[in-house]
Design goal:
Elements: E1 19-20, E2 23-24, E3 33-37, E4 46-49, E5 53-56, E6 63-67, E7 73-74, H1 76-84, H2 107-117, H3 120-123, H4 132-136, H5 180-189, H6 196-211, E8 215-219, H7 222-235, H8 239-244, E9 254-258, H9 267-270, E10 275-279, H10 282-287, E11 293-299, H11 308-317, E12 322-325, H12 336-339, E13 344-348, E14 360-364, H13 366-374, H14 390-403, H15 408-426, E15 432-435, E16 444-450, H16 451-454, H17 458-467, E17 494-500, H18 508-521, E18 541-548, E19 553-563, E20 566-572, E21 577-585, E22 588-597, E23 600-611, E24 614-623, E25 633-639
Parallel strand pairs: 9-10, 9-11, 11-12, 12-13
Antiparallel strand pairs: 1-2, 3-6, 4-5, 6-7, 8-14, 13-14, 15-16, 16-17, 18-19, 18-25, 19-20, 20-21, 21-22, 22-23, 23-24, 24-25
Length: 659
């Protein structure tokens, strides 16, 4: 007899004094004790809901830990899983049944039916449910899941504070929260070995059935889907070509892209070594095709004369595939891009679809999608580093299964309701206006105020929300294009922030509203640098600079033109250059620069102190569209010292030069 004598579940409403899994406590074997323990601080009580997954429920409800007679604690999730699915429930997608349709209206219903289905004889069958082997599906040390307090790492145990997300889907904060179905499918997949090529065939067939595409594969993110698609368009399934990538000698090596589709994410295409051939109009596009053209790449393609239909039609006439990057979009069934003529379309799995964050989808023409799989892991190819595991494949499939049944209109109404609640609350603060713009996309909220009146800028508000408690994510993405110059008068400008409710769990809109209202109604005291005393430093001229990164260094140069406090000029890096703008305040200098490369801008923000003919400080931001993505750096600069040239001076006409 095992020493495990008690168990309980997370099922809401379960009275510890009543029953467990359909049995009274008297019928259960010698219960030692059932101890309530606190849940996650953000979710004092929760249930598995059909819409958002984890939802706040009864604050008094506590989770329980399973304590054995010997004092050991066991993982409640493992117990719950065994109760629900002791022999493999087909309602959870698994390796043997890729039909994937959840036959129940909600996860709660699925859970309840799983509990009711067991009878007492089944509970003790095969050596007894309470034996450790039966409980955890294995024997020996592998059978026991560590679950005592502190054994499983948490964000808090690492000193990392979780976030409430009012800014939408962004990879830097984790994309979106996985659906309950996704987590259950991944857990089930983790219990077995499987041949990945066989799994890819099964998943591909099921994705085709669900989406209407010819075929589909799961990748390690949308960027990986783009890379594998590019590889397939270049090398197909030819193992000789496949092994040579990214050496494109003798192979197709050009990708045509409309100029309006260039973006920072097309690095996933460029990494194959291809040349990106830009076209500004349909005439240039048609002239760009040649025997070296491997693919056409599109990002958020437009309609009209130079839209998807025209682009795809011209490519189809020449036998060139068209790839659409639809990373952050939701699936459309039937797929609007494939219907309009695209050959392939790539999606992020961990954003709108709420699958595993590290997954993506590639859908489209069957032979190319299957070739993309051969160009990815586990095969020895260029794409092998972009590995996707069996758990992610099954989790992503579960997300697509759920997508076809999700009520998009109900979700939109819920997000609209959240925005309306926040707008009503924050508008109570004097000088604050909140509006929900009319849009065909997801509803969002814009909150605006006069920084000079309230004494707080948008950046300062977001910083306070990010550093406070509860902690709110801030929008770290900046508009594409060159960063505007640093401006000493930024505090006097109109300020605004945007709220997107997609990432909010039930009840979190109240937390967001309260935090923003409290900061705008009574702005915190923010220590501002006093106006500098004494003359403004003169930095006009050429400067040689040296940047020290987290790893490595580089020599740059600055050319400043100064008018009073304001600066304009040029910043040259080792390979790129661009205009700069900023100001000098006493001996303090602040300036921003933007360097254009391919389809994006590399932005820098410098601050420091001027000390005669030298300067030093920090590069506070180095990024493309995500603030701070390349860390910080330290910089020093020395003013260029001009010397007299050798030889005769050039003299005005009619005058002798000095000899």
């Amino acid at each position: 007899m095992s020493d495990l004598r008690s168990a309980a579940t997370f099922l809401p409403g379960l009275n510890q004094a009543d029953s467990f899994a359909g049995f009274s406590r008297r019928e259960c074997v010698a219960v030692q004790r059932i101890e309530p323990v606190p849940c996650h601080s953000r979710f004092p009580g929760y249930h598995l809901g059909p819409r958002r997954g984890v939802q706040v429920m009864n604050p008094k409800l506590k989770a329980v830990t399973i304590v054995s007679a010997a004092g050991r604690e066991y993982n409640p999730l493992e117990v719950r899983r065994t109760i629900l699915n002791p022999s493999g429930d087909s309602s959870v997608p698994d390796f043997r049944r890729l039909r994937g349709n959840m036959p129940f209206a909600s996860m709660k219903d699925w859970y309840a039916r799983g509990v009711r289905r067991l009878n007492r004889r089944e509970l003790f069958r095969n050596g007894g449910f309470w034996s450790l082997g039966g409980l955890f599906g294995g024997t020996g040390s592998r059978a026991v899941a560590a679950s005592s307090a502190g054994a499983i790492p948490t964000y808090e145990s690492l000193g990392v504070r979780p976030l409430i997300n009012p800014v939408g889907v962004m990879t830097i904060i984790g994309g979106s929260l996985m659906l309950p179905e996704v987590k259950l499918a991944m857990e089930e997949a983790s219990r077995h070995f499987v041949h990945l090529d066989e799994l890819a065939e099964g998943v591909g067939k099921r994705l085709a059935e669900l989406t209407g595409a010819e075929w589909g594969i799961v990748t390690s993110g949308c960027a990986a889907a783009m890379t594998h698609a590019t590889s397939a368009c270049i090398a197909g399934a030819d193992p000789e070509k496949l092994q040579r990538l990214p050496d494109l000698t003798g192979m197709k090596n050009e990708v045509i892209v409309p100029t309006y589709c260039r973006n920072v994410y097309d690095h996933a295409v460029r990494m194959l070594g291809v040349k990106m051939v830009e076209a500004e109009n349909l005439e240039q596009y048609q002239a760009a095709f040649n025997p070296r053209t491997a693919m056409v790449y599109l990002f958020n393609p437009t309609r009209g004369e130079f839209g998807l239909e025209a682009i795809a039609g011209a490519a189809r006439q020449r036998g060139v595939p068209v790839l659409v990057d639809a990373a952050a979009q939701g699936l459309t069934i039937p797929n609007v891009y494939l219907q309009a003529g695209a050959t392939l379309v790539a999606y992020s799995g961990g954003k709108r679809l709420r699958g595993p964050q590290c997954t993506g989808l590639l859908l489209g023409q069957k032979d190319l999608v299957r070739a993309a799989w051969l160009n990815s892991a586990p095969h020895h190819s260029f794409g092998r580093p972009m590995k996707v595991g069996k758990e992610e494949m099954m989790g992503m499939l579960a997300a697509v299964e759920a997508w076809v049944k999700r009520d998009a209109d109900a979700e939109r109404r819920q997000w609209q309701s959240c925005c309306e609640y926040i707008a009503a609350q924050v508008s109570k603060a004097p000088g604050v206006k909140a509006e929900i713009p009319n849009t065909l996309g997801d509803p969002y909220l814009r909150i605006a105020w006069d920084a000079a009146q309230l004494g707080i800028t948008a950046a300062q508000l977001e910083k306070a929300l990010f550093e406070g408690n509860p902690r709110l994510a801030r929008r770290t993405e900046i508009p594409w294009g060159p960063r505007r110059p640093a401006n000493r008068a930024e505090l006097g400008t109109a300020q605004s922030i945007s709220i997107n409710a997609f990432g909010l769990s039930a009840g979190e809109e109240k937390i967001v509203a309260e935090r923003i209202y409290s900061l705008l109604s009574k702005p915190p005291r923010i220590d501002r640098r006093p106006a500098a005393e004494g003359p403004t430093a003169n930095v006009a001229g050429q400067w040689t600079a040296h940047l020290e990164f987290i790893c490595g260094s580089s020599d740059h140069s600055f050319e400043f033109e100064q008018e009073g406090n304001n600066l304009r000029g040029t910043h040259r890096g080792q390979f790129l250059s661009g205009d700069l703008g900023g100001y000098v305040d006493g001996n303090r200098i602040v300036f921003r620069t933007s360097h254009k490369y391919e389809g994006f801008y590399l932005n820098y923000e410098f601050s420091g102190q001027v000390e005669g003919n030298t300067m030093r400080g920090t590069v506070d931001d180095m990024s493309t569209i995500t603030t701070g993505e390349y860390g910080e750096a330290r910089w020093t600069a020395r003013r260029h010292a001009y010397t007299e040239p050798r030889g005769d001076y050039l003299s005005p006409p009619g005058k002798r030069s000095r000899g």
